[in-house]
Structures are given as structure tokens and as C-alpha cells.
């Protein structure tokens, strides 16, 4: 189903889900790029979050991943309709994004890795297969990629080596400050992509989010590296592999920017995204192998 078709189907889907699951609206819905979350009360009057997602190849693992984690340390999945991409979740308040200290917040996220990254699960897609396909698309763009060719070459070479074998661990796939919320005094993950990959695959989103904090420093490149080292050290990851995965993911993002950047309405976002990815790539040059 296309994203537009999914959006067009939402009113009927939500109405049917509320009826079947005995849910009552309890606030205004919150919209994301590929999902909409509705605050609801269940039949017992307990506040929940009803999430409807546009199911795509790289997020089809969300429901089985949440089932596998069992709410530790992740949002609890109460009920799901995988065929229609609908989830009923525990209600959480307070995003880590609001945590004032970005360095401490980075360490909090990195501290979740060891609890989330269990051994690869056969019911999840292989994230490394996605990476190999995305790298093929990146290579096909040639000089259209808005970055020095040496970075694209680095990403293609390193990515094909890193993703040559199937992923070894269950990973979130998009774990950053907006995707960590509070359960009392505990921080838990939400919105996983959910697939098998290398643990070091997880680092990159922490570098391109909370960008204003990096820009506020006197040296953006050094601030990126400081955050990178904090995450790698906290999680006990292999530094070279983490660095190369950051390069791979940033270069793939640049390829997607080329594919998505033709729409005039996205021009400001396009330039901002490109600038962030190239800046991170340049910062990674100074990370010793």
C-alpha cells in the first residue's frame, strides 16, 4: 500500500480498530512521517497509545521486536494487528529529547544497547540485506550524490564488508533521543524498526539528532566526535566498526536525499539534511582506525 493510500484509509481503519478493541479517544492524535498515535482509554479505563503505521520493508519487524523485548527495556506491546499495522501500547510520558544534557542523554541511549541487542532472531528481517540493497542504489547515483566521492567510495567499500554476512543481533534501527521515553524513573525504547544487524549499526542516529546542541559548540566536528566516543565507550562497541557504520549510514542518507530532494516543498529540509550528513562524514575522518 502506498503512503497516500494508507493515509486515505486511516479514518476507517481507526474507527474499526476502536470498535473492535473497545477503545475511547482521549486526546488529539500525534503524527509522524509513517505513523499516527492516538491517546485512548481501553475498556478498563487505562490510558494507552493506539499506533497505526504505514508498514514498509524496513519496519515490518516492529511488532515481533516489541514482542521479543517484552517491555524490557522497551514500551510494552498490549495488543497488535500485524496485517494492518496497528498496535496498542502502554502510555508513556516524557521524552529523553527533553533531557537538557545532550552528552548525558547520549550515554543513556547507549546504555540501553546491551539490554536491547540480544542474539539475532529468525522471525526478524536481515538488516544487512537492506544495507546491501541501499548501497547498490547509492552506487547507481554516481556523482549525483552531494558529497566528495571519497566518502561515497569509503561507504561502499566498508559497507559491503560490514554487511557481507547476516546481522548478528536484534537492533532497534533508529534509536535516538525522540525514541526513548520515561516509564517512571526508567528510560525505555519506542518505535523500533526491528531487524537483525551489527550492534555498531545503532550509533549513527545519535549523531544526526539534537543537531542544535552540536552547532552550539565552538567546533562542530569535535563535538560530533566527543558524542561518538561517549556512545562507543558507554556501550563497549568496536570503535572502527562503529565509525564505518556511521559513514555507511550517512552516505545512504545522502543517496535518499538525492532521491527525495526534487520536491520544492522539501528544499530547506533537503539542504539541512545534506549539510548534517556531510559534516558527520568529515568528522569521522579524524576518528583513528
From TrEMBL:
InterPro entries: Kinase-like_dom_sf (IPR011009), NH2Glyco/OHUrea_AB-resist_kin (IPR006748). One of its GO terms (biological process) is secondary metabolic process. GO terms for molecular function: phosphotransferase activity, alcohol group as acceptor. Pfam families: APH_6_hur. This is Aminoglycoside resistance protein. It comes from Propioniciclava sinopodophylli.
Amino acid at each position: 500500500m502506498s503512503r497516500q493510500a494508507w493515509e486515505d484509509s486511516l479514518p476507517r481503519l481507526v474507527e474499526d480498530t476502536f470498535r473492535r478493541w473497545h477503545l475511547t479517544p482521549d486526546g488529539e492524535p500525534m503524527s509522524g512521517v509513517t505513523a499516527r498515535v492516538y491517546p485512548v482509554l481501553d475498556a478498563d479505563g487505562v490510558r494507552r497509545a493506539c499506533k497505526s503505521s504505514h508498514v514498509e520493508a524496513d519496519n515490518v519487524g516492529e511488532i515481533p521486536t516489541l514482542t521479543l523485548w517484552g517491555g524490557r527495556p522497551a514500551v510494552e506491546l498490549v495488543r497488535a494487528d500485524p496485517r494492518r499495522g496497528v498496535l496498542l501500547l502502554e502510555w508513556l510520558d516524557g521524552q529523553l529529547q527533553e533531557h537538557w544534557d545532550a552528552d548525558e542523554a547520549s550515554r543513556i541511549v547507549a546504555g540501553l544497547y546491551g539490554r536491547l541487542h540480544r542474539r539475532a532472531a529468525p522471525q526478524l528481517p536481515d538488516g544487512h540485506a537492506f544495507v546491501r540493497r541501499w548501497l547498490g542504489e547509492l552506487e547507481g547515483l554516481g556523482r549525483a550524490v552531494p558529497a566528495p566521492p571519497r566518502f561515497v567510495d569509503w561507504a561502499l567499500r566498508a559497507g559491503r564488508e560490514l554487511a557481507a554476512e547476516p546481522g548478528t543481533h536484534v537492533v532497534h534501527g533508529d534509536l535516538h533521543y525522540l525514541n526513548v521515553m520515561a516509564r517512571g524513573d526508567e528510560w525505555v525504547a519506542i518505535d523500533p524498526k526491528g531487524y537483525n544487524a551489527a550492534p555498531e549499526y545503532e550509533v549513527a542516529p545519535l549523531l544526526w539528532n539534537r543537531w542544535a546542541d552540536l552547532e552550539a559548540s565552538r567546533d562542530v566536528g569535535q563535538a560530533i566526535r566527543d558524542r561518538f566516543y561517549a556512545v562507543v565507550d558507554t556501550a563497549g562497541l568496536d570503535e572502527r566498526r562503529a565509525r564505518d557504520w556511521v559513514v555507511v549510514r550517512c552516505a545512504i542518507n545522502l543517496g535518499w536525499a538525492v532521491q527525495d530532494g526534487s520536491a520544492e516543498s522539501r528544499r530547506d529540509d533537503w539542504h539541512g539534511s545534506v549539510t548534517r550528513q556531510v559534516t558527520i562524514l568529515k568528522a569521522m575522518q579524524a576518528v583513528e582506525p
